[in-house]
What does this fold into?
Amino acid sequence: MIPSCMSVKNKYLALVLVVIVWYLSAMKCTGQDNYISEIKDWHQNRVERLKTPGSWLSLVGLFWLSEGKNTFGSSSQTDLRFPPGTPPLMGTFILEDTSLTLIPEGNVVLNLQGRRITTPLYLSAIDGINESLHYDNLQFYPITRGGRTGIRLIDSQHPAMASFDTVPYFPIDSVWKIQAQLEPSSDEDSIEIANVVGMQIKYRPAGRLHFEYQGQSMTLTALEGGEDQYFVIFSDQTTGAETYGGGRYIYVSHAGSDGKTWIDFNKSYNPPCVFTEFATCPLPPPENDLPIAITAGELYDGH
It folds into this structure.
């Protein structure tokens, strides 16, 4: 029996359909594999950064300054107690309102950008990481939080970096990469955010990111996080259980001309306070407490 032209055509169309379905499925799998690799690479880069000197794992002190003279060194008589092995008296910080001056002790070798400091030195108290002073393997610089000035101390040979392995995270799932619409803030908008040391700090938000998940409409207030990113502090139904009780952080690319961007919760990460007691982590504002469980991004195992 000779097959009809119609039956041959139908078989051909069926074969074409099978090939198309196979191709689309293969492309989907390839896209998912590439996405998983992207997130794994992002996570591994974050782990490597945490293992480098200057990271949160290398912090060994945070000292809040009083108005006037603040001596520092390893002696119990100093105002700022530096680690054992440092000179008993290394110098004095003088805080006068927002002006901060360092007076080094004469026989102590302190360096700033490779230059030994022997005379009084004015320091910026906004965030002086670029004005880091060095003594052997120690690095210290001023910070300002909520109107207070402190000295942050780093040990470039802190054993925590060598013993650190990784940060656990939820299984990677592209369903948690969600498109959002930015509602820009006005110049008059402001928000107060508390931090872990009890300060209330005022910020001007960049805007509000509106998105949907499984039919639910949600909003996150975003702060500026650099030239091309927003910074978001959020909590959700995993907070305090699978994830850190102080919430998590995430960076989001600036919205395009249409106001659209993507929130990738697979890149949400733990605050510095998970790794050190010497951080001043901002906490999630109440409006950023999401009513769902974000089972993506970094976990917290309690250590």
